[in-house]
Design goal:
alpha+beta; 19 strands
Length: about 290
Amino acid sequence: MDETISPTPAPVKVKKPGSRIALLFFITLGVIVLIGSAFFASMLYSPFKRVADEAFVVLRMPPELKRAHFYTSAPTYDGYHISGLQFVRNTTRDTIVLAGTESLDRSRRVLSYTELEDSVPMNVTAHYVGGRKIVPGEWTIAITESNRGLKPVARGFAPAFLDETHIAFFTDIGIAVLDLNSGIEENIYEHPPGSRIDSRIRYSPDRTLVMWTNALTNETMLGRISIHSLELLAVNTKFGNPILTDAALYEARKTLRGLEIWKYDIDGSIERKILTIPPSLSFTSMLI
């Protein structure tokens, strides 16, 4: 009779506690390395992305807008300007020169203020960018020459040199022009009854166009201005952040995708988007 031999059971391997601890250690170490790598990659990526975004925006920016200043949001309104393929932060007050506020020979500037601190460019920027209702008669217009202080010349708001001897500005009645030699003030345009101007007034760099908004009706007026007259060219819906050049009207629109720049014909009729400044640059408004 054959003898049945039972198979010998295989020995059971018992895992040592140390091997499990080592495995957990290496898994934890791997996770830490991955998180650290992602963190340092983001730290390296963000500055690189900003440099790339700046160059892309500058290359697509219309030449007539490359002299503009670009601002972050309130309350600081940090300003930047284009230099090469970069946006450089404004470091001195003299970098902010609104169109028309400097005489043609650059020896004088004209400004309006209610208190002396309103002549500080950051506050002026807040008025022009942020926008608010204005009573021109509450403001003083003054001319400043190199280190000679302020010389008050009239009551009004948003003055601009039309030439070396004439400045235009807004009054409670309308728009006036002051002859600096004779001291004669001439009203060249009257606002419609019940008007209240908004502080976002724009002059073109060549001082031939002016744009302003009725804060009560939200209508934006565009006119061709000279020493003795103003020709009303167009009346449009209010622009949030208008930019006026010598030949076109632009608007900067703050969106979730960034700051969009739109271009209009000079009468404001045809609109087309030019470019979008990405959120990585943090700009919310523009001035020229």
